[in-house]
Amino acid sequence: MLRKILYVLVTWTCCQAIAWSNGVSGFVLNDNFEPLPYATVTHPKTGSWVIADEEGQFLLQTYVVSGDTLVISRYGYRDQLLILNSATQVHITLQQDVIAMDAVEVQGQVLPGTTPWETVIVTETDRMSSMGVYQRIPGVLLKTYGGRAGISNVGLDGGQAEHTKIVLDGIDLTNPQNGQTDLSGIPPVFFQQMYQSRYAGTAFGSGAMDGVIQLRPWFNRSFLNATTGSFDFKSVAIGYNLTKNKKALQFIGGGYSSVDDYQFTYDDTTYNRDNNNMDQTFFGSRMQYRPSLKTIVKSSVFISKSDRGVAGPISFPSPHAKRINALSLVSASLVRLLPSGHIRVHISHRANNEQYTNPDLSEHSRHEVSAHTLKLNYNQRFLKQLKAFTALELRSEMITSNEVGNHNRTLSAVISSLTFTVLPSFFIRPNLRVDSGASFRETTTDLYVQTKVPVLGSIRGRMGNGFRLPTFNDLFWPTGSYAEGNPNLKSEQSNYFSFSMERNFSNGSQVSLEWRERRTKNLIVWTAGDDFVWQPMNVDETLRKSYSISFKAPFITQNLAVSGYLTGNEMNNLANNKSLPYVPMHTGQLLLQYSWETSALDIQTYYSGKRYYSRHNDDYNLIDIEIAAFANVSLGMHVAMPGWNGLRLHFTIENILGANTSFFPEYPEPGLRVNGGISIQL
Which residues are within 8 A (CB) of 378 and not within 5 positions of it... i.e. 6 or more apart? Predict the structure, then answer.
């Protein structure tokens, strides 16, 4: 297999003349220094272009050098020419001008090495590793269930996975059956950026109590990657980008396999983790079309199919269980640009077909779950000091299951937001969302205030609330096998408050401090009654207090970048005044990135403090995982050979110290992992 992969790589490379670059990323702002959506960023030398998203973010992955020019354009604004220097991350401001004018050549504001705190750019070595890239977001808890075949999800600030939404290209990935998103079904090669917000309740409604993580799909990338490594891991992915005039098409496909049977130690006894294999294939396609200055059309398709063994927990292994899951994601949007705003129509479809079999217990379950969403946005700037946003949303969720049964529900929402710019450096944004359905009505609010203070930098304050509807499993799980659903459940509720400061320095350094407090009630918890039947109940009320300190700086030289964060969590169940289970008291991350010419070395250390794994959290159930700190080393190297400019070799080592990184004691993780790979960029 490996020999065939290498043969394809050599043949491909000999036929291509390739240049490699990470490209340029940044933000497009209006003259009020607010994000300007849907501006077009063009690189005239190569003809590559990309459209900024609704937050004004863009990532143009093409070959660029110092002195190259970018053209930034948007209907209703003056075109701008930006001459690049050594920086690969830029902030660009456009001046409103309804009358068409010639392009204005400016140097622009270039901020070397800066991106907002919420943004993580996914590197080539990130795509080779497991799910560690998510740990680069402050406050994120990555929850894994043993190896690559196990389910993976995330929570923010010690919250549950059901309280954090994951969105890919505007598609809500939440499974209506259990309220979670299995990240193992979303290959990192599908996206190139991650953007997180802890206060997205008014934008995304149910399930965004703690926030949202948006995954930005790839743009303008043509490549061929191949990787092999520990536990018989193999991966191949190919992507192709075609840009012509007003159209841009991108395709990606591939797959990977892993045996992932490994040894682990539990209670001083060594065991084999069997039936942990996984095979996955995936395909993606994106289209962007600009038929006129005022109109943008986008569409995307993502398909993933996995066939994996289900090893089960240590105390109850399932050596012959299998799970097959097919996930399909489709979206399309039409944007009509206005001189001072835009109208956007967005439709999306999410569906998964999951089959679970365990011949040892004669179990066979089948679940077909789908969700369809239609969203209409209207964004208009009426005055320099006032901007309005209004949206209508319709969502339909359905399940066909041999266990849960056949059910559906229709949800609707009205969203409204006003931004008042009191001073150039001070604005207030109140947000309101009203959700309704057959048996519920929820109102979500959010008030956001931001100002700038000399020396201190940007100061932000926020307060509001969120909610989460019961899932299909919560409501309709059938009676039997010592479990049953509860159709009388109420929605979970939360209230939050936050305060933050962020300081940007002229050399690209950033420092951010944030304090957050959340109070939740009516939390849905499955509990066993006197008859030993487990049933979900609205029983818990919690108080969570968190802080985070983040920094990013070019250190010593421009070749060496350092970033990291430290978070602290104080989280109690108010019913029994006990700490919440599985929530580390402290987490931290330190990332060192050293680059020279076209090569790079990344050293990442992630720390997780002690935590409890029981709702009782007495001394017996306390797990001290302070030793679970680990270093993730990634190496990317450019091979300078004539005609081989796009060839890169990759090498990663995960968990160098061999620490116990298991999130759940019953689901052990493998120790040291070594991966090696090759990539070709066109």
Answer: 341, 343, 388, 389, 390, 391
- By CB neighbour count within 10 A (0-12 exposed, 13-18 middle, 19+ buried), where does 531 fall? exposed
Largest CA distance in the chain: 78
How many residues are given for the chain? Answer: 682
The residue ranking higher by pLDDT, 101 or 675, is 675
- What is the CATH T-level fold of the domain 128-204, as seen in this structure? Ferric Hydroxamate Uptake Protein; Chain A, domain 1 (2.170.130)
Give the CA angle between residues 527, 533, 539 to the nearest 5°.
20
pLDDT exceeds cutoff 80 at 417: yes
| Lowest-confidence segment of 267-276, 303-312, 449-458 by average pLDDT | 267-276
Local confidence band at 619 (pLDDT 50, 70, 90 cut-offs):
very low
Q: Where do the CATH 2.170.130.10 domains begin and end in the chain? A: 128-204
Closest CA to 66 of 120, 107, 123: 107
pLDDT over 90 for what percent of the chain? 32
Rounded to an integer, what is the distance from CA 446 to the centroid of its chain? 22
- Measured distance CA(397)–CA(177) in Å, rounded: 9
CB 534 within 8 A of CB 540: no
The 10s digit of each residue's pLDDT in 642-659 is 556 677 778 888 877 777
- For residues 439 and 348, the model is more confident at 348
CATH 2.60.40.1120 residue spans of the chain: 2-110
Q: Which two tokens stand for residue 591?
A: 């990332």
Using DSSP, how many helices (H) and how many strands (E) does the chain show? 4, 43
Identify the burial level of 142 via C-beta atoms within 10 angstroms of its C-beta, where 0-12 means exposed, 13-18 middle and 19 or more buried: buried
Give me the amino acid identity at 332. A
The verdict on domain 2-110 having CATH code 2.60.40.1120 is yes
